[in-house]
Amino acid sequence: MATQIVHSLFDNGPKICKDCHRMLPKDYTDEVCPACKERELFSKVKDFIRENDVTEFDVADHFEIPLHKVKSWIREGRIQYKELHTPTIESLHCQQCGEPIAFGTLCPKCQRKLSSSGSVTIPSSSHDNRFRYL
Questions:
Q1: Which of 33, 38, 90, 133 would you label with 72, given CA atoms 20 to 30 Å apart?
Q2: Which residues lie within the region annotated Disordered (predicted)?
Q3: What is the pTM of this model?
């Protein structure tokens, strides 16, 4: 009986992430916060990619995560393929010149141009007043 009273007193305190010690909502069911879960997942994904010759589709399937999450990590440059010639259905291309790239949004040549000039010129088209989808 006394232990139940003691436990109920401590259960009303704030929940804290066991990894980063951030405060969590009282109704949060996991022991770690979403940011720590994401960090742990990303670490597992990187290890999986290092150990296996896989595509973004294999990674999404293996970890049961959305394909767009894996592709966003590739675009951000957080993960990349072992070789540029790894066959995939959808590969990345430089947004400036169209050259195939392994990660990010610009090839090394266009990145150097950007860093030296401070800006990248976008080729003009005859449809300058049309909507563009990025």
A1: 33
A2: 114-134
A3: 0.55
